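Q: Here's a chain of 177 amino acids. Please give me its 3D structure as tokens.
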Amino acid sequence: YEEIQVSRRQFFNRGIIATMAVSIGTFGAAAISFLYAKSAGGFGGKIDAGAPLSDIQAYWNSNKAPYYVPEARTYLQPYPEQDVPKAKKVPEYAPVIGGMEQGIVALYQKCVHLGCRVPWCQTSQWFECPCHGSKYSRVGEKKGGPAPRGLDHFIVTLSGSKVTIDTNLVVTGPPIG
């Protein structure tokens, strides 16, 4: 019978080529999966608020604070029914009027000045940015600081008691005033 002879040099050359091929293939697969968006839920898609509207309203009433949805990076706040006619006059609010008419508004947690996370201040009952002091009302309108406009919004839909936040489109916040 015939013996297959592989020299030491051939063995190492083939090993190096095989290792490089596997490495390049793995990198290519990772790059392709990174470039294509995931169709699954999560930020950048429609997110369930995690509680029925009645529970969210009970939270508002008992805590006097916004309901935070971490998956959506959003604060849910009640929107006063008497302010809806005024909101309809602001062009920036057009996409989110439906939620406002149903008494709810979704505010993006990101400050429009430098992108810091804007926490709720229980003492002042406003959103106050810790970075440079921008202040926003309960419904995200700018009240002070260097921010150029109010907090950005997301579209909220109510289906029965289910609250869904569409984080695919960031609606630009209202201008000052």
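Q: Can you summarize the key feature?
A: The chain has a mean pLDDT of 87.
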